[in-house]
Give the backbone structure.
Amino acid sequence: MNFGIIGCGIIAFTHASALKQLKAEGCDLYACADVVREKADQYAKDHGVKKVYYDYHDLLADPAVDIVCVCVPSGMHGQVVMDASAAGKAVVCEKPMEITPEKIARVTETVRRNGTKMQCIFQRRLMPVAIALKKLVAKGALGRICMAEARLNYYRDQAYYDSAGWRGTWELDGGGALMNQGVHGIDLILWMLGEPVDTVYGHAATMSRAIPVEDTAAALLRMKSGALCVIEGATTAYPGFSSTFTIYGEKGTVSFDDQHIIAWDFVDKDSAPPRPDLGDDVVGGAKNPIDIGIYGHICLLRDIAQAVRDGREPMLPPEEAALAVQVICAIYQSSRTGRPVQF
Ligand SMILES: NC(=O)c1ccc[n+]([C@@H]2O[C@H](COP(=O)([O-])OP(=O)(O)OC[C@H]3O[C@@H](n4cnc5c(N)ncnc54)[C@H](O)[C@@H]3O)[C@@H](O)[C@H]2O)c1
């Protein structure tokens, strides 16, 4: 499988590292494209990429490219994905898949109409403890879920926002602490809960950075079951904290962060399920985006290569990527209007 990377910035390095690990499985980082020539050239040099393009349409026209990784700024994802799909390419799209529910719906519809494959990146879904907790919730091992929490308190200084013109803008980042960093954790807590959202109450503020979008936010979600879900999301939390996820059920509580299981407590100790192994992956990124781990990317890139070979759906198709962005946009709407948003 020949991979082509579009956008040779920070996250493109994670894709290159993941593909290096997958070389023995037949995944090759074959082409790259960036509008900034020096970035494309440097990336190609650093990672031994055979074909370099400065216009992504040329990469899409290369018949040797099988799978395209979309690593451009968030608000450009949709157009690139739709162009790649029209060119018959399978696509891996970085998070958030797009920055509004309407754009996500348009991209999804296009990919479905063209019959091409699409993998969305939410690498935290590959965390063994998250997979274990989702299964426990689904089979009722925690009993009725009363409350959940996702604390997504990152640190990004002004220099981070100034490092690229698209960061912290409505047009291309789609929001701030929630849409860029928090989207991972919002996706994860909703995926683990696995039930529909009923109402969203939110407040998003710009406390400390010179950006038009939020750097600090809090929200309360009421799920259809009545369970409450509390979300904190910030890029003002010095020095940047491990994201923490907790689900409280009538039969027990499970809580974990990027490195640890914080609570694995069951009312009935005798039938408590075994603690999962955390694995040796570093999720990272709380303090600095270049520190994120590659385990989830390896799994998701391997999966789409296999999906293309076997003619099956990838594990994280576009429909899966919509909910977190819908919820974040509802938090923004609630914050603007001072009213809850009914889902
Ligand atoms: N999964 C994760 O944990 C994770 C981490 C970081 C970033 N991301 C996502 O990856 C995306 C990129 O983020 P980044 O931090 O790497 O940004 P970045 O600014 O470092 O890189 C983006 C690159 O895209 C290039 N680009 C812009 N327009 C282009 C075009 N038309 N054609 C080709 N190249 C173009 C830019 O020149 C730049 O090199 C964002 O959507 C972000 O949310 C995901």
In short: The longest strand covers residues 145-153. Residues 177-193 form the longest helix (17 residues). The two ends are 40 Å apart (CA to CA).
